[in-house]
Write a structure and sequence with these properties.
alpha/beta, Rossmann fold, globular, single chain
């Protein structure tokens, strides 16, 4: 745990005054050739295109307030791609397993994730979590509204039109801006 805290302190020193927000945008199953087309298609629907990710991490009014942290295993980062502006990897070696994901999340101020195990984990750990989902997201996030009846600490922004992320990203950016304006104790 000492190494995790050291990493967090170094990242906060490098980005003083900024909130650290974890970002998880791509479901790995869409790259697995050994699974069926239905699973790959479902993963594709849940994932954000890289152009949408760039709209989040390059948002001009958030650049001075937030630094993002990549919550991916290093192999998936290579497959999905990532703009290296305003986003850092966890630790020196990146995330290798779910215990690394958990350790990283303990040091973050918030998490933004697509409908995934990372979104569930973060919310259940009590970390403010924003879940981005397509029109028919997983049952845990309910069918409408911005709250889950089963999982607290999460706000849900869902597509109204399949494949269209613009409104979701506008809502997310507003949520992040509001989140940054709240006074919270740095970890």
């Amino acid at each position: 745990m000492r190494e995790v805290i050291k990493w967090s302190r170094q990242l906060r020193a490098k980005h003083p005054g900024k909130k650290l927000v974890g970002l998880f945008w791509d479901c790995a199953q869409r790259y697995w050739s050994e699974v069926g087309a239905v699973i790959r298609c479902w993963a594709e629907r849940r994932s954000l295109p890289l152009t949408v990710v760039n709209k989040i991490i390059e948002c001009s009014f958030l650049l001075e307030k937030i630094h993002f942290v990549n919550l991916y295993h290093s192999a998936i980062t290579t497959l999905s791609g990532c703009n290296l502006k305003n986003i850092s990897n966890y630790n020196i070696h990146g995330i290798q397993d779910f215990s690394d994901t958990t350790a990283c999340i303990t040091q973050l101020d918030a998490v933004v994730a697509v409908d995934s195990s990372v979104a569930n984990l973060s919310a259940m750990m009590g970390v403010p979590t924003c879940v981005l989902t397509h029109t028919t997201g997983d049952w845990r996030w309910g069918m409408k509204g911005t709250e889950s009846p089963w999982i607290s600490n999460a706000i849900i922004f869902r597509q109204t039109d399949e494949g269209v992320w613009e409104d979701v990203i506008q809502n997310l950016n507003s949520w992040l801006l509001n989140f940054c304006s709240t006074d919270s104790v740095e970890k």
